[in-house]
Structures are given as C-alpha cells and as structure tokens.
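Residues and backbone
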Amino acid sequence: MPAPSHTSEPDGRTRLPASVSNWLSELTTQRRYSRHTVKAYERDLALLVTLAGDRPLEAMANGDIRQFLSRLHAQGYQPRSLARILAAWRGFFQWLAPMASLPSNPAQDVRAPKRASNLPKALSVDQTQALLDAPVMQAVNDVVNHRDRAMFELLYSSGLRLSELVGLDISYCNQEGHSSAGWLNLADREVHVTGKGGKRRSVPIGAQAMQALEDWILVRSSWLSPAATVNDQAALFLGTRGKRISPRVVQLQLARLAKLAGLPTHVHPHVLRHSFASHVLQSAQDLRAVQEMLGHANISTTQLYTKLDFQHLASVYDTAHPRANRKPE
C-alpha cells in the first residue's frame, strides 16, 4: 500500500508524490522555468499535498479544491497568495489530467477571492534620467561603473526582467552543455531573451544602452579567468570574481545607485521594467507593441500600465489646468 501523501522527509518537508516531482522536473528541463519559480510551485504543491492528506491527488474533485482554498483563506492567506497557489494547482492538474485519465481539471473553474489592483511602481521620466545620469555612473576608469551603467541602461531600454538580464550571453552560445537562454546581438541592436513559460522574444536596444554596452564589452575581458566555465565565459555581465553576475548583486548595486542619485524611493530592477513600459505607453500609446516587448502572455497584464499612464495624465491635468483644483465660488 502506498505511503500516505502527507508524510514528511527527515528535514520536515512534505514528501511529494511522483506526479508532482515529475511536473516540477518538466518545468525545469523542458519549459525552462527559473529556479525561483519552480521553488514557488513546489511550495504551493506541497501545500496541496498536505491539505489532501491520505487521499491521492488523482482523486481530487472540484469541491475539494474549493474547500482547500476556503481553509487557506480562513487561515489568513491573502487574495494575492491564494491566486498564486491556485494558479500552481491549476497548472499541475492541467498537466496531470490527460496522463491520469481524469475527467477534467478539478481546479479549472475555481476562482480565488478578488484582490485589490495594486499598480506597478514606476519612476517618472525625470527620476529615471537622474538615476541613469548620476555623476557616480560617469567614472570612465571604473570597470564596475561600466558594467552597472550597461546593466541599468539595458534594463530600462528593453524592459527586461532581472532573471532575463543575468541570463544574457554576450553572443549566442551552444557548446559543452551550455545553450544560451538569451543573448546580445549588437549588429542588429537587439537582445534575444527567453521569458516566462519558455517564450522567446527580441527587443530593440536604445542608443544610450548601446553605447554603455559597447563601453562595458571593451573592459569585460579584464574580469574573465582562463579557467572560467563555459557558462561564465559566455555571460554578458560578470561579477568581480569573473563569474556570471548574480541577481542579488544587481539588486544591491541598483539600490546603491538610487541612494547616491538622491531618489526618494527604493529602486529595484523591476521598477526599471515598469518605468520602461509606462514611459513607452505615454509616448506611443501602442499597447500591443508594449505587450510584445515585455513578453506578457495576456494583454490584461500590460493594461495595468494604461492605469499608470492615466495617473500621470491626471497629475499633469491637476497641476497645469487653471480650473482643475479651483473650488466653485
């Protein structure tokens, strides 16, 4: 008789059934999801296994999923977390249903509680200019500054995710077990990236970012070690030890720059992505083009930036229109 699905490993983690482990493996190897995303799915599926108890996941019905979601809501889980958990469950059952001959996906028509629509945070155009033109970034004899300027100009120029940025190669590479997930194409002034769900896209690079990248590439080799792995040799952006740069280093360097530039808010890499989308929409008003450049699967995600654009226009109106804030006499 199979072991109950709620049993634990020696380290206290929930023991996952083979079906869950196989799905997570497919996300990693075939769909090329990031390690962070797969770990999040693993936690959400471990929660499902715990709630199911001794019952196999193949026996779950629509009513079970609704009940589990209600229990989590009663335990204090917020709508945003519940929506993420439900999405993981739905994705897993979508994969499992045909393999296990399930009549349907038990999580398919279950809805999480509505959540407040939190708009993404974006810098103003002036704040972005102040950040990227900060005097500390203009030290031409500093290799770190060359790298940081190239990274942040590219983040803002092309609207990349942090994982996409650190995964970039200096050019396409497919050798010794390393295959580029993203790479730079200077000749065509564009960058090729693999986003969420393994979706490939190409995004143009602006003139400022092109210049910064060219400056960085001229000094990049000074950090490369002859004994570097193929992965590190291919990496566009390196740490001071000659290895592919880590997401944490990018976050810390950007936060440091924002502080030196005197910005009043904490700036993380995704803020530059939001700023890219907001500023392009303000200028071009082309929602479909921005959706393609951001790599959004659904245009509804991109539409959040139209609300940011409206907030910007409303602010300009309130400030500039002579009768916007004038009270009736």
